[in-house]
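User: quick one, fold this
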Amino acid sequence: MLARLLASAVLLTGCGSKKEDRPAEPPVETGSAVARPAPKPSTSPKLDLDGNGRVDDGERVASRKVRLSKTLSLLDTNGDSKVTLAELEQTKLPYLKFADPKAVDTDANGTISVEEVDAALDDRRTKSRERWERKLQR
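Assistant:
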């Protein structure tokens, strides 16, 4: 009975099957040599703004600012197209919770801009990276 259970488990899971028994990707012929299919491009078309097949630093920054702008528009609870310090303090988004939200408003005008949030998040990332580097050096 145990032997039957083990045999059926092997058949169902494919354990014990030889590699040559498994279906392989069809080879692609390139002249006289046979090669594997070309890998898919790793660049997201949404990020690659100039269409050169690579995402450079400027495109990353532009993409991050677009995402932050959309996120900040969710925080604007009164619909005046401005995110105030009070709206930032009331956020439920954990990555936009700051120990000192007033420090995010660097120009002290009472509204939070995309650039201010980007700078605050960048500062947080830098401090986190430095903490990890100190831990690794111990």
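User: anything notable?
Assistant: The chain has a mean pLDDT of 78.
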